């Protein structure tokens, strides 16, 4: 949610941002509705004040004067009855349009229409070389009996999978690896709820823009989250924090759910793009003056996890047309997938300034003043995608897969997949 003061004092800035994002939003209509809302509020407050004044005068009046004043009160009440529903309707229209306005992008964000305009920030590592034709994760998963999408399809439909054997063990290994790196950096580990109220989805900026992407329960009016960012951000909603307690750093593990409604026809094989996946997320509440330093720490932490796994990757500075509504800036880290011969997004890192904190009313006390905090988030480890990146990058000619050295201590020193006895099912 943007600061209304900016709408009232500098609507041209909002129009410029809407243009950068390629959005079709009539800012003039929003300005007009806000002006009408304020005029109605002045009118209504004036009528209420007049009614209160008349009400206080009545007891000391003569019967005749009392009748006239009562008649005046009736006229005032009638006007209020007319004005109040108009105000409600105006506010509803205004709030609907305000909810569609994006955050202000940072000056370092490239202006562009879509992913083709994203800019490479930097690369790390070298592409792995093979003396054989590398397989896709789907082929490796079937060959080593690590992933079963066929039975998952029978049970749950498309875009689901069973992780089996070493893949199931690597799920927990990756989670523990990420947490062991994050906790010494001051990130408080959490397992948050994955069912949240609409207020949390709206407050974090996922609703109404992406409402069709998420599952909802029929009876309880709750929503399944697509990222732990939602419950981690909403953890402090409605609170006033203390400046000396900032920054607050959290890391949350959760199962995530996304409908992927707009992606049918993409990534239909394997488990790269699925409806259910597990993820370790990191989240920071910061005071504005140091939030961009915290954001770079977040990016460095995201990269440290990927470097430890030995992946070759590139960090992309996402353009204005390819970042989310709440984002002021976003980095995507794309890992090289040899089996697909392309870079694929593995993790992302976003700075949302005070967009989410305004919606969720998360503030802090700064020398007697109350200000909105800044929020930022990053994927620490998207478990499924990281798993398949390991399968593709560490595959061997004989069909086995090496285990990244940093993960071997979590698996009793095992160096190669397979290492478990198995019977084909």
UniProtKB/TrEMBL annotation:
Enzyme Commission number: 6.1.1.11
GO CC field: cytoplasm
Record's subunit section: Homodimer. The tRNA molecule binds across the dimer.
Full protein name: Serine--tRNA ligase
Source organism of this protein record: Candidatus Hakubella thermalkaliphila
Annotated Pfam families: Seryl_tRNA_N (PF02403), tRNA-synt_2b (PF00587)
GO MF entry, a single one: serine-tRNA ligase activity
Any Gene Ontology biological process: seryl-tRNA aminoacylation
Sequence similarity: Belongs to the class-II aminoacyl-tRNA synthetase family. Type-1 seryl-tRNA synthetase subfamily.
Record gene name: serS
Xref: SUPFAM superfamilies: Class II aaRS and biotin synthetases, tRNA-binding arm
Free-text comment on this protein's domains from its UniProt entry: Consists of two distinct domains, a catalytic core and a N-terminal extension that is involved in tRNA binding.
Function summary: Catalyzes the attachment of serine to tRNA(Ser). Is also able to aminoacylate tRNA(Sec) with serine, to form the misacylated tRNA L-seryl-tRNA(Sec), which will be further converted into selenocysteinyl-tRNA(Sec).
Residue ranges constituting the Aminoacyl-transfer RNA synthetases class-II family profile domain according to the UniProt record: 174-404
Matching CDD domains: SerRS_core
Catalytic activity: tRNA(Sec) + L-serine + ATP = L-seryl-tRNA(Sec) + AMP + diphosphate + H(+); tRNA(Ser) + L-serine + ATP = L-seryl-tRNA(Ser) + AMP + diphosphate + H(+)
Record: residues binding ATP: 258-260, 274-277, 345-348
Pathway(s) the chain acts in: Aminoacyl-tRNA biosynthesis; selenocysteinyl-tRNA(Sec) biosynthesis; L-seryl-tRNA(Sec) from L-serine and tRNA(Sec): step 1/1
């Amino acid at each position: 949610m943007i600061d209304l003061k900016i709408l009232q004092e500098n609507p041209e800035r909002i129009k410029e941002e809407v243009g950068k994002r390629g959005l079709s939003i009539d800012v003039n209509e929003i300005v007009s509705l806000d002006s009408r809302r304020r005029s109605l509020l002045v009118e209504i407050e004036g009528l209420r004040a007049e009614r209160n004044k008349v009400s206080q005068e009545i007891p000391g009046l003569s019967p005749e004067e009392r009748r006239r004043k009562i008649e005046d009160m009736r006229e005032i009440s009638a006007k209020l009855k007319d004005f109040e529903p108009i105000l409600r309707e105006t506010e509803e229209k205004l709030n609907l349009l305000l909810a569609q306005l994006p955050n202000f992008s940072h000056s370092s964000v490239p202006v562009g229409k879509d992913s083709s305009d994203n800019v490479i920030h930097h690369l790390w590592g070298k592409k792995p070389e093979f003396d054989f034709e590398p397989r896709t994760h789907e082929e490796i998963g079937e060959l080593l009996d690590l992933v079963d999408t066929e039975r998952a399809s029978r049970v749950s439909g498309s875009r689901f999978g069973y992780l089996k054997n070493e893949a199931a063990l690597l799920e927990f290994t990756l989670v523990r690896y990420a947490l062991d790196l994050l906790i010494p950096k001051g990130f408080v580990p959490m397992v948050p709820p994955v069912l949240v109220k609409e207020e949390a989805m709206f407050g974090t900026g996922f609703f109404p823009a992406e409402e069709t992407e998420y599952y909802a329960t029929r009876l309880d009016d709750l929503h399944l989250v697509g990222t732990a960012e939602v419950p981690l951000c909403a953890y402090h909603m409605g609170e006033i924090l203390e400046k000396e307690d900032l920054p607050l750093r959290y890391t949350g593990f959760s199962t995530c759910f996304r409908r992927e409604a707009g992606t049918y026809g993409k990534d239909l094989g394997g488990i790269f793009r699925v409806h259910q996946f597990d993820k370790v997320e990191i989240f920071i509440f910061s005071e504005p003056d140091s939030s961009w330093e915290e954001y770079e720490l977040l990016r460095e932490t995201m990269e440290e996890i990927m470097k430890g796994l030995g992946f070759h990757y590139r960090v992309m500075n996402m353009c204005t047309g390819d970042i989310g509504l709440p984002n002021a800036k976003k980095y995507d880290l794309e890992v090289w997938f040899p089996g697909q011969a392309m870079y694929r997004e593995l993790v992302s890192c976003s700075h949302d300034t005070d967009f989410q904190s305004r919606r969720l009313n998360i503030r802090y006390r700064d020398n007697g003043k109350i200000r909105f905090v800044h929020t930022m988030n990053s994927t620490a480890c998207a478990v499924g995608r990281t798993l398949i990146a390991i399968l593709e990058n560490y595959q061997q000619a004989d069909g086995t897969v090496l285990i990244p050295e940093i993960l071997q201590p979590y698996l009793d020193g095992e160096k190669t997949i397979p290492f478990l006895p198995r019977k084909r099912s």
